[in-house]
Amino acid sequence: MWFVAVVATLIVGYTGAYVASPEVRYLHRAGVEESKILASRRKIATLVADTTVPEETRAQLRLVLEARDFAATLGLEANETYTRYADVGRDTLLLVVTASGADCICPVTWKYPVAGRVPYKGFFDAAEGQKFAAELEAKGYDVNVRPSAAFSTLGWFNDPLLSTALERDSMELVALVLHEIAHNTLWVKGNVAFNESYAQLVGYRGAEAFFRAKGDTVLARRAADRWHDEAVFGDFYGRLVARADSFYATHPDSSALRAGKIAIAEWARADFEGPVAAQLRSVRVTPSSISNSRPINNARLVGITLYRTHLDRFEAWYQAHGANIKVAAAALDSAMVGVEGDSAWGRLGP
After folding, report:
1. Which pTM value belongs to this model?
2. CB half-sphere exposure, 189, CA atoms < 13 A
C-alpha cells in the first residue's frame, strides 16, 4: 500500500502551517515517524553476513534480496528498495482508517500530492488512529480500522524492509516485496484501487515466476493458488457491493437501513461459506469468516475491495501477454503513461 509519509517528510519544516492546520500536524507526525524508520535502517547484506543474527531471520533476509533482484529482472524499478532493514519495535506498523457513508459505498477520501486522492488514512500512533476513527463514527460514518505491515513511498525514498513484514511465510514475503516494488514502477494518480489491484497481480504472479525459476514448484503453485483465491474474493465482494448498492438506491429509512444491512450480511455469509468456499484453493473458510450477527460495514468493504477490483481484467491482461508477468507489467506501464483516475480502467480493457 502507499502511505502519506513521503508527503509528510517533504513538509516537516513548515512550522507555521503546523500551528495552523490539523492536517499538516498529522503529516508532520507521520514525517517524523518515517524519519525515525529511515534513521534506524541497517543494510540487509550486512545482517545476512552477521552470524549473531538468528539463521531463520538471515534466511528470510536472503530471500528478500533475491526477490528484489528478481523484481529488477522483471523490469520493475527496484532501485534501493528493500536493501535495508528496520526494526520498528512493535507487532503493528500502523493503523489504517477507512470511512464511508452509512447508506452508500462512498469512501471518504483525503487528497495529497503525488498520490492524489486516497480512501484511507494511516496512523503510526494507534491511539491517534482510534481517536480519529471514533470522531468519524460520531459523524455517522461507517468506519473500519485495520493494521498494516508495510507501505511504499513510490520510490521517493529507499524503503527499508520492516520487521513487521518478517511474520509472513516465504511465499507471502516474496509477494509483498514484489507488490511494494511494483508501486515504484507504476502509480496511476487518483486511482488507488487500480494501483493496489495491479500490485496484487505483480505480487502473486511474480512470486509464482520467482519460485518456478528456483525450481520450487510447491511454492510456485501456492502463489498461483493464492492469486486464484484473490480473484474469487474479488468476484464475491463485487457481487456483495452490487447488492448493497441496489439496496441503498431504495433510500431506506434508519430502521430499514439496519435491517437491510443485516440481511445483506446474512446473504454474504451463506454465499461465502457455500459457493465461494468451494472455489478456494489456498484459503480455509471458517464459520466466523463473515458474521451475520451485525450489519455490513461499508468502510470495511471499501478497504477490502481496494485490493480486489477487476482482478479478472488484470488476469486477462496477463494471459493476453503470454502469461508472462514481465511482458504484462511492461505493457501495462506503457499503456498507463499520462493516465489519471478512473480512465485507467479503460486502458486495461473491457
Report:
1. 0.84
2. 10
